[in-house]
TrEMBL record:
Residues 252-258, 276-280 are annotated as: RNA binding. The gene is tgt. This is Queuine tRNA-ribosyltransferase. The lineage of its organism: Bacteria, Pseudomonadati, Bacteroidota, Cytophagia, Cytophagales. It comes from Flexibacter flexilis DSM 6793. Pathway: tRNA modification; tRNA-queuosine biosynthesis. GO terms for molecular function: tRNA-guanosine(34) queuine transglycosylase activity.
Length: 376
């Protein structure tokens, strides 16, 4: 993998760059649609490519390991062959999903034992095992195995957890560096900064992560319920320490406003379930603002969903029709909303990239947040 920094904004710390992988180039800043279980929910691969113009999608180690399982993925020749997505894929390590199974998991130095949410069967994830699984999935970008601390989290727990995440990282690195990709293209490993909302821990973690000198770095443990101001403060502190010549990935973030603020602080990559999950619940992001499509207000509104986007669903369907689909529980409603929301997120980061290159990002950001976050 390679990263080329193309431009830096004059009025903020925003950057535009290019990440090159064996499955193609990614223009940053970028939003990565979440495809947890080998599918971006309710979206065809063709739509991802042609309508949404997604450049990279996520997969998840925890879900893929449980279903379809490693044997199927290996026989398919990896996840790209299995789901037909031939552009880059990043897999999260399961270090987040496993923790959200609180009650059915135990964290020890060796790793995490947990019970499957599907059939209750017992499993263990270790740093080494999670590297091997991501080798078998064949992700272009693999994530280190970490513990994402909850919020709030007391200082002592956050410190001990961060230290363990660092020891786990060392184990991930030894396993990664002593194994080969299985499918003939290269893979890379991103470590993850932790440290909860404590400045000294975040600083120590960012320094430790930077020293590992990997090809890209991630910031975890944020967007877990802390105030947005804390998330921005931690992100800024960490970005100022992580190397400038490598991509920075803020995990699990966020709203359109969170993403634009993250970009302003020097983040290059984002992922979040919000556009697809909220879309399936009838919350639709548009260039004009946020639409709750179930609202009575749209019953007789025959204007296009989003005249500000030139994609198919944005201009073809009316709000009244989409509202009808949601009220009648027609699955097409969820498909349209997911497609619109992802198109909007990709358009937003594409525009941000353009503004960074033009040197007008900071003013554009303030104006855009005001517009796109208003409730219509
Ligand atoms: N997704 C969102 N936050 C996190 C995190 O802290 N760790 C991992 N592995 N995934 C995440």
């Amino acid at each position: 993998m390679q990263f080329k920094l193309e431009a830096q904004d004059a009025g903020s710390k925003a950057r535009a760059g290019l990440i090159t992988t064996d499955h193609g180039t990614i223009e940053t800043p970028i939003f990565m649609p979440v495809g947890t279980a080998a599918s971006v929910k309710a979206i065809h691969q063709r739509e991802l490519k042609e309508d949404i113009k997604a450049q990279i999608i996520l997969g998840n180690t925890y879900h893929l390991y449980l279903r379809p399982g490693l044997s199927v993925l290996e026989q398919a020749g990896g996840l790209h062959k299995f789901n037909g997505w031939d552009r880059p894929i990043l897999t999260d390590s399961g270090g987040y999903q496993v923790y959200s199974l609180s009650g059915t998991r135990k964290i020890k130095e060796e790793g995490v034992t947990f019970k499957s949410h599907i059939d209750g069967s017992k499993h263990i994830f270790t740093p080494e095992g999670v590297m091997d699984i991501q080798r078998t999935i064949g992700a272009d970008i693999m994530m280190a195995f970490d513990e994402c601390t909850p919020y709030p989290c007391d200082y002592e727990y956050a410190r001990k957890s961060m230290d363990m995440t660092h020891r786990w990282l060392k184990r991930c690195i030894s396993r990664f560096d002593s194994t080969e990709p299985k499918y003939g293209y290269s893979q890379t490993l991103f470590p993850i900064v932790q440290g909860s909302t404590y400045k000294d821990l975040r600083k120590a973690s960012a320094e430790f992560i930077a020293e590992q000198n990997r090809e890209g770095n991630a910031i975890g443990g944020l967007s877990v319920g802390e105030p947005a101001e804390d998330m921005y403060e931690m992100t800024e502190l960490v970005c100022d320490i992580l190397p400038k010549d490598k991509p920075r990935y803020l995990m699990g973030v966020g709203t359109p406003a969170n993403i634009l603020e993250g970009i302003a602080l020097g983040v290059d990559m984002f992922d979040c379930v919000m556009p697809t999950r909220n879309g399936r619940n009838g919350m639709i992001f548009t260039t004009q603002g946020i639409v709750n499509i179930r609202n009575e207000k749209w019953k007789n509104d025959f204007s296009p969903l989003d005249p500000g986007l030139d994609g198919y669903v944005s201009s073809f369907y009316t709000k009244a029709y989409i509202r009808h689909l949601f009220i009648s529980e027609e699955i097409l409603g969820m498909q349209i909303a997911s497609l619109q929301n992802l198109s909007f997120y990709l358009h937003l980061v594409q525009q941000a990239r353009q503004k960074i290159k033009e040197g007008t990002f900071a003013a554009w950001k303030t104006q855009t947040i005001k517009q796109v976050m208003q409730r219509l």
